[in-house]
Fold these 4 entries.
Entry 1:
Amino acid sequence: MAGKFCVSITSAKDNPDKATVGFVVANAAAASDKEAIVFLSIEGVRLAVKGYADDIAEAGFSPLKDLMTNFVNAGGKIYVCSPCFKKRQLDENNLVAGAMIVGGAKLVEFMGDSCPSVTY
């Protein structure tokens, strides 16, 4: 099942259920041989900081830290909204594996003409 898939996550500890389910879906996309990315924006950018997600564990799901690691190990990439990250004055030198700070143009380039996406 080739193709691309984008999961957009706008929440972190303000709504850990959305953050967790977003990475569950992203892992499903990566496991389906999709070129998968997670786009973190708004509060979701906090998930890109090492250690931030370590204590997020929603009932019925794997811990978020594990979901994020598994996603990257399956070839997934984590795009982090540059303006959102800078607005929150987070440390660009302390990103989780697989995360990269990008502008909107990079997301548009990835999504191209046809790329399914979901937002949490």
Entry 2:
Amino acid sequence: MRQESAQTLALQALAFLAGQEAAFGAFLAATGTSAATIRARADDPDLLASVLDCVLSEDNLVLAFAREAGVPPEDVARARAVLAGGEVPNWT
């Protein structure tokens, strides 16, 4: 996956996450940031990587997002690997 595609998918994930009140609140709390800061930094690869980390942290989130975005769930992990910080850890 190319950087541009990964960023586009991560922006879609951000919009999805913003629509999930509990998950978005948890994301804001975990990152110690505000919605205003996120809007200002929406093109920052580090922020986008943290969005994908959040989505990937829960099976139900990644599956719901992938379904909404019309992509295989594996593409979310692939996008994360392309963004800042490199590969997603293998949690199994």
Entry 3:
Amino acid sequence: MTIYFTPTAQKKLELIWNYLKVEFGEKAAHTFQEKTSKFLNTVSEFPEIGISEVPEKNIRSYLITSKTRVFYRIKGSRILILTFFDVRQNPLKKPR
């Protein structure tokens, strides 16, 4: 399956990576990048690996790290990465 990112997801991914690099160093940012890449490879092979968050909109999520969850949607043979979400936020801000 082909993976696409929304502009929001791309922006949040960059923000998380930059934050980790500045606050925790290059190694932490690299570790996050590796975990994200591993998730993308896995979800391209097994798109339904994440939990169903909004079944009627086919929105699923997957916990990449203990603090970061990615939300995505399966559309035919494409996977659309919707956003990255810090799980410490108010849960009402999750995609619906």
Entry 4:
Amino acid sequence: MPPQKILVIDDNAFVLRLVRDILDRYGYIVFTASTGLGGYEVACNEHPDLIILDLRLEDIGGLKVLHKIKDNKVTDSIPVAMLSSDNHYHEILKSMSFGAEDYIVKPFKEKTLTRKVARLLTKHPPKKREFVYI
């Protein structure tokens, strides 16, 4: 089975490098984008198996990018995990209502990131969304 492709969209260079380095160690092919529109283009061209998307981007909001991804027949089936330091319950619910499959709160532990990624990349994800707000 070829390595799975993950796209990480975040305007923070440190976060991009951190997530890329972690996922590289687990054998994933990682694409990165520092803008929402650039990330959307990468998603359309590379067809990643998963997108990790920052909620707050400078050029276009993460929810707008999420909407574009879920509104495009080429990218609508790609699971998306939102990534944000905003851990307010209403933001998490809003992201899920826009089509996100999960939500990762910054700062995150490596184990949390890799477990969520592995779950989202399974061929048979759970029918019920599993998210625990702590």
